[in-house]
Amino acid sequence: MSNHFQILKKPLVTEKSTQLLADGNWVCFRVDSSANKIQVKQAVEKIFNVTVLQVNTMVVSGKNRRFGQNVGRTKPWKKAMLRLKEGDKIDLFEGA
Amino acid sequence: MDLVVEELDQLKRKLEITIPEEVVTQRINSAYSELNQQMRMPGFRPGKIPQNILEKQVPVQSFTNMLQALLQEYYEKALRESGLAPAGSPEIDHSKLQDVKKNTPLKFSVTLDVKPEIKIKGYKGLKLKKKETQVGKEELDRAIERILQQYGSFEHHEDGYEAQTGDYLTIDFEGQFEGQPLENGNATDLTVRIGEKKMIKGFEEQLVGHKLDEQFEVKAVLPANWNNKLRRVSTPLPGQEAEDLATFSVKIKELKKLVLPELTDAIAEKEGFETVGQFSRGVKTKMQAMYEEKEEIRIKEGIFDKLVDENSVEVPESMVNNEFKFMIEGMKFQIEQSGMKLEDSGFDEEKAKEEWKDTAEKNCKGYIILESIAQQENMHVSQLDLEEEFKSLAEQSKQKPEDVKNKMMANPEVIKHTTSKILGRKTMDFLYANCEFEFVRESPGE
Fold first, then answer.
1. Does pLDDT of B52 surpass 90?
2. Residue B195 belongs to a domain
3. Residue B379, number of CB atoms within 10 A of its CB
4. Does B52 touch chain A if contact means CB atoms closer than 8 Å?
5. What is the DSSP track for B37-90?
6. Sequence-separated (6 or more) residues with CB below 8 Å from residue B423
7. What pLDDT is attached to residue B136?
8. Is the interface score ipTM higher than 0.85?
């Protein structure tokens, strides 16, 4: 997967992620399920022009959903947490 | 708070007010935390959005209400500090709100008119003529007759009797104007008393001399305010020239006279008195009181005029504008009360402004003078005065005093207005009590 923009789906701005950002300069993304840590690291470093020190990834399991009689399940997805070098910033996570 | 007062001209002041940064920051923070509770953002529970994210989403400038209140608060604070008495409403410069920021002091300016400081002299012991009115016998008789009319009975006149002034007639009529039927110019079974002048001018006189069941025509000039349209006098109206005679065909259906009963103790009792003597004395004192009240009002008006004439006061423009607004609102209210539509009344705000210019200015001058007299005499409006005002207002509008009070207390503007009204009245009473009167005897009706 050569295109960095295909790897990063969207930034995660939630209560938990803002807390992580404040505590240890961690940023979180929803990434393509087939991407590995190295690809995510490269993508973030290229697109946002920052230095990534550490990458944690995890697969968030899909949740049971029910619409009337139909029972279904949402898709599982991959979340990536990246620790940035001190002083590096990504504007997406500063609000706006 | 920093405050710089700049004198623009005699009555205009410019206030440069600086709100300290701690206050600005604190207000902004509390505004955001309030907003936090209401705002929903995916990923966050309500009330848990970090302020830095919220600040990016919602700019500080959008808290207009909070900022307006802040400016108002500091404006009032500045007034207290500088001791200026504003006249009319101030102009608060809102342009600075654009660069409101946390941790920076907020500067803004207010332009306002101040009441001129004047010392009024010679308001005590004003020499005025006071008419002393004595209720004469003739007038008393007339008043008693009016009361007796309520107890009178009708008697039909015999056939062939010619109607005279004072008779009661039941008539039908149909009006025509320039050959067209007149709108609102018809009536059936209308009771008219000749000489009461309730009909249009000249109508009643022409009924004299006609007999029962007679059918005849009456010609009369239509009054200017026919059909309640175009009531304002300033516009020239059709119907005032002699050729605009309307024709009414009238039929007399009943011809009656009113027979007055004898004044007896029984009637006196119904009116709340014990004997005839007491009754007539009672009527007399009532009339006397009425005349005196009228005279008091006249004298007070005289005092007002005199004070305005003798003291040259400069009137701030915004105060006059306020007075205009008040007068125009009052006029509009009256028009609507009388059941007319504003458009039909021919009421023109611009024209009214032109016409009332002198009156408004005079009133303002008077207010300023009265106020400064009140200040010189150290008069104040107490809580008691206010309570009394509430009570009398409640009586007028048939509400509970508490309701009126609560309603008025809710609006500081109204309270301010009421207070100044009471103060004006108190001052006037004071002036009236301190007048030197030259008594002039006069019989009533002149």
1. no
2. yes
3. 16
4. yes
5. HH--BTTB-TT---HHHHHHHS-GGG-HHHHHHHHHHHHHHHHHHHT--EEEEE
6. B370, B371, B374, B379, B380, B381
7. 72
8. no
Q: Find the mean pLDDT for residues B240-262.
A: 69
Residue B161 φ/ψ, nearest 5 degrees: -75, 140
Distance in angstroms (rounded) separating the CA atoms of residues B271 and B235: 46
- What's the whole-model pTM score? 0.50
Q: Residues B364, B309: one domain? A: yes
CB-based contact, A10 to chain B, within 8 Å:
no
Residue B169 DSSP SS3 = strand
Q: Which of A10, A12, A13, A91 would you mutate first to test chain B, the one with the most B CBs within 10 A? A: A13
Beta strands at B215-221 and A52-60: parallel, antiparallel or unpaired? unpaired
Q: Could you tell me which residue, B312 or A24, shows the higher pLDDT? A: A24
- Chain B residues near residue A14 by CB distance under 8 angstroms: 43-44
Enumerate residues 6+ apart whose C-beta is below 8 A from B77.
B1
Structure tokens that stand for A20 in this block: 């992580």
Of B141, B147, B258, nearest to B192 (Cα)? Answer: B258
Residue B38 above 60 pLDDT? yes
Of the residues B259, B292, B309, the one at which a domain ends: B259
- The range of the structural domain enclosing residue B38 comes to 2-114
**Shortest distance, CA A10 to any CA of chain B (angstroms):** 13
pLDDT at residue B341, rounded to an integer: 66
The structural domains of chain A, ordered by start, are 4-62+73-86 (3.30.70.330)
